[in-house]
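Below is the record:
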Amino acid sequence: MTAGGVFAAALQGVGVAAGAPFVVGGMRQVRARLEGRAGGGIGQPWRDLRKLLRKQVVTPNGTTVVFAFAPAVIAGSALLIAVAAPLFATGSPLDSSIDLFAVVGLLFIGTVALGLAGLDTGTAFGGMGASRGLTVAALVEPTIMLAVFALSIPAGSTNLAAIVSTTQHHPGQVVSPAGLLAFVALSIVIIAETGRLPVDNPSTHLELTMIHEAMVLEYAGPRLALVEWASGMRLTVLLSLLANLFLPWGIGGDHPGVAGVLVGAAALVIKVAILSTVLAAGEVFMAKLRLFRVPELLAGSFLLGLLAVTASYFFVPALGGST
């Protein structure tokens, strides 16, 4: 543990928490401009959160502590990934603990918490959304593991910092068949995990098509603000991991100084801005898939992840890695 690593971890947590609403607002603004609308500006999600935090807490009749504590669990799991993952630098105090399985487990904890909250309300929409959300999660989580595992084979470790360091020393891994297949697979499952088009529409309230929104219909006030904030943090964290796993240039090393951490933060802001802009622009030209077609898309991404793992074994000698 170094002072630079502690500083990087703290700055990552603050940066993701503060920047997540701006990522969401930026994506909404890109969509608005491409659709010929003025949009509310990239700061609109922050204004929405401030308005929600001032409102009264409403608890539906019959709900338990599951409904009350689910928003904190979702936000806490996303924030823990932000603190521990190699976002600004690879020298986080929790580097040794944050590996592929820990990230997938923390993501799944948040998904299950939201699903249980939807079921806890006892409403038809809550149960429908929970069923759909957990079905998508059951198809998404294995693909995340496969895609990142394909990158871990050359590194000889499932630790995210080790994978990032290997990619920095062997940039050819990014354009290898295994790297390209893993990138496409991980991009698809991130879209599904964060409820973006074509899997889900984050701006709809049409009961027959929504997934995420159906689980949070009964939330209001500060709890709804925390759920929306957590959703933005999950999106930001996943885009950051996608950027750093495949394009780790600019990220600080194991013993970063203040300057190295700040350079890593600036590099990540640029990469996340580019990825979120591309994602938002792509959504303008996409239509939401019918629900029964979503498993077909996710099965295709799983197959791509499996092919990435297979291909990575053949390209380990060329990358100079070890198994």
Notes: Residues 3-319 form one domain.
